[in-house]
Design goal:
single chain; 228 residues; alpha/beta; 3-stranded antiparallel sheet; 8 helices; 34% helix; 33% strand
Length: 228
């Protein structure tokens, strides 16, 4: 199946995802690495000066960290999310956003890639009954847009560069509600520990726990405002 994005076409397939008793059918990019190679060839042919990092279609797969985060959300259940506002940053295919929507939260998925909204629309059509807002947002840079604060901020596998830990802490200062909680799941990359140090230095209360999924260890970081 071919998905026509805003700048290029993607070969896609469908995958069934089970989170608790929730079963979802997602359209995803068939081969992300092949799609990245095709993107480089296309942009080189055009002589495009666009930022390659921002256009890489890493968004197009349900990565293991997103599954771990979604399972954690499921384990918290209806009581934690019903009636709450939840933002997912760097959402990609937005699996955690679907789960919090199932529990009756106001679910807001955000990403920078221009083709994320199209995939989200497709997956919402394939899975009726979910309500997810989408906002184009680069969490790494301050925005003048009034997006407000959220009871929950969720993120999975978003710390690729050293500076991103500081950017995420700054983002949480602006957009995490005083009684809110941010949950980050990281596949034990290099910079999650930097996030913990910077968040604590900024006055947040931080807890870390290990999550084991298919014999791989993931770090789940909880960040909250410290009691005054």
């Amino acid at each position: 199946m071919i998905f026509q994005g805003r700048r290029m076409e993607y070969e896609t397939n469908q995958t069934e995802i089970t989170i608790g008793s929730l079963r979802l059918c997602f359209t995803q990019i068939h081969n992300v690495e092949a799609a990245i190679d095709a993107m480089f060839r296309e942009l080189e042919a055009r002589g495009s000066g666009e930022l390659l990092e921002d256009l890489c279609p890493y968004f197009g797969s349900v990565w293991p960290s997103a599954r771990v985060l979604s399972q954690w959300v499921w384990s918290k259940g209806d009581a934690a999310f019903r009636g709450k506002s939840v933002m997912e940053v760097g959402c990609g295919l937005a699996l955690p956003s679907f789960v919090v929507s199932h529990f009756g939260a106001r679910s807001v998925a955000t990403d920078l890639h221009p083709d994320v909204p199209g995939f989200l629309r497709t997956n919402l059509e394939q899975n009726p009954g979910f309500s997810i807002e989408f906002k184009t947002l680069d969490w790494r840079r301050p925005t003048e847009e009034a997006i407000g604060t959220f009871d929950w901020v969720l993120a999975s596998d978003v710390l690729y560069e050293k500076y991103q830990a500081a950017s995420l802490v700054d983002f949480l200062k602006r957009h995490l509600a005083l009684e809110g909680e941010a949950i980050l799941v990281d596949p034990n990359r290099a910079y999650w520990e930097r996030l913990v140090v910077l968040a604590r230095h900024a006055g947040f209360y931080v807890e870390v726990q290990d999550c084991l999924d298919q014999d791989k260890v993931f770090r789940l970081v909880s960040i909250r405002h410290s009691p005054s």
